[in-house]
Amino acid sequence: MESHILVVLPHPDDEAFVAAGTLAMHIEQGVKVTYACLTLGEMGRNMGIPPFANRVTLADIRKEELEASCRAIGIQDLRMLGFHDKMIEFEDKQLLDRSIAALVEELQPSLVITFYPGYSVHPDHDACGAAVIRVIEKLPPDKRPVVHCIAFSRDHEREIGQPDVIIDITKYLKQKVASIQSHRSQFQAAELMGSNSLSDQEMQARYGTERFWTYRFN
Amino acid sequence: MQPINPSDIQARIDALKEQELYIHLEMTTGAYAAHFDSSKHPGSIFITNTTVKFSHGSISGSGPYRIGLKMEQGWIYAEGLTYYEEQEKERLIMAGHDSQGKLIVAFQLSKTPF
């Protein structure tokens, strides 16, 4: 069993789609989970139909959605690191790395979950994963937590192969769906949820498995 | 946000003339544009919290709307605007959303930073 899981992702709602079931499973087993969310997703494009948010109000709305998602999953410790959405790749690397290193030092996680740098489509995802890898890489090999990465770019399986951690989260679909639904301003995205009225079977096929790649440090 | 009422917007633009204003101007196709459709070319820009001053400005078109602001040495332009925040008294907050509700363009002016 893991002692403490640290999740480092850049946007509110990243946790919902890629790791909510896995986290709910660990939490039910008594594992502590800290979610460090780098930004408030304030540059997101989904604003409701018709739009109920704008560039000024979106940050507060997404903060509340993030908190609701964490409650749905059972995450006990949410850290909002306050970086600017879309700017992670341009951020001062020392500042970014220091804030992640401080969390690793404080929490001594046995497992860290983040995006696979280079294979995660959004520049914020890649830059977030790269920062986590830089931080963990600096630790002596015997002090490094295991790092599970999420990848979904078009070329990812050709480059990094099949995921080595495949988790059946069928038992935790309820938490996962509740987490996704917490992100009200994002949830209407048709390409993510289809008609919003998927059958149980469709939900299971689409969301019943979460996949991770264990990062191999040299 | 409410669908744009051009005469209300024009009055708001006129009220903001000839003063230092903070601007947030943005256009984006979204970071996933090419991921969902490889024929798409992703493009985004934004500039936020720099100051501008315009002498003359107007809204044009029949929806989606265009805005042009004439400055001492140049112009500011935005196309594709569909919604604005009617409740805002001091700031002008406008956006253009596509048929899926996704933000395409944002155009905002304020006397204080965003």
The proportion of residues in beta strands of chain A is 15-25%
DSSP strand content of chain B? over 45%
How does CATH name the architecture of chain A?
A: 3-Layer(aba) Sandwich
As an assembly, this protein is heterodimer
Helix vs. strand class of chain A? alpha/beta
Count of beta strands of chain A: 7
CATH class of chain A reads Alpha Beta
CATH superfamily of chain A: LmbE-like
Low-confidence stretches of chain A: none
Q: Strand count, sense and closure of the main sheet of chain A?
A: 7 strands, mixed
Instruction: Using the coordinates shown, work out and report the CATH topology of chain B.
Output: Protein Yojf, Chain: A
Shape of chain A: globular
Q: Report the strand count of chain B.
A: 9
Main interface: chain pair and counts: A-B, 25 and 27 residues
Q: How confident is the prediction overall: mean pLDDT of chain A?
A: 93
User: Which class do the helix and strand fractions of chain B yield?
Assistant: mainly beta
Q: Indicate the radius of gyration of chain A in whole angstroms.
A: 17 Å
CATH architecture of chain B: Distorted Sandwich
CATH superfamily of chain B: Hypothetical protein YojF
Q: Using the coordinates shown, work out and report the CATH topology of chain A.
A: Rossmann fold
InterPro entries (chain A): BshB2 (IPR023841), GlcNAc_PI_deacetylase-related (IPR003737), LmbE-like_dom_sf (IPR024078)
GO molecular function, one term (chain A): hydrolase activity, acting on carbon-nitrogen (but not peptide) bonds, in linear amides
Protein name (chain A): Bacillithiol biosynthesis deacetylase BshB2
Organism (chain A): Paenibacillus albus
